[in-house]
Design brief:
By secondary structure, this protein is α+β, with helices and mostly antiparallel strands. It is built from three helices and five strands. It is 34% helix and 24% strand. A three-stranded antiparallel beta sheet has the order 4-3-5. The protein has a two-stranded antiparallel ribbon with strand order 1-2.
Length: 90
């Protein structure tokens, strides 16, 4: 029996390839709103990031999320993403 292929995605913070289910998807909706997609099924352009606040700060510093989502992200949005991510990690 063949092994099932595990989909890999690259974290925009640390740049490591990890299993898709181990990462959190951040999406840009058609209304240009940036939100966390905990289900991984919402409609919109997505970028993946580790469930670690250090990766979010790296992505913020290198503008990795902005590049991936092709939209400028204000500081307030990063703050709300931090709050959501810390709540999701618990």
């Amino acid at each position: 029996m063949a092994n099932k292929k595990i989909p890999l995605r690259q974290c925009v913070g640390c740049g490591e390839m990890k299993a898709k289910k181990d990462l959190i998807r951040v999406i840009r909706t058609p209304e240009d709103e940036v939100i966390l997609d905990t289900t991984g099924r919402k409609n919109g352009r997505g970028a993946y990031i580790c469930a670690d606040l250090q990766c979010l700060t790296k992505a913020r510093k290198s503008k990795g999320l902005e590049r991936s989502l092709k939209v400028a992200i204000p500081d307030e949005m990063y703050d709300s993403l931090e709050k959501e991510m810390s709540a999701f990690a618990e």
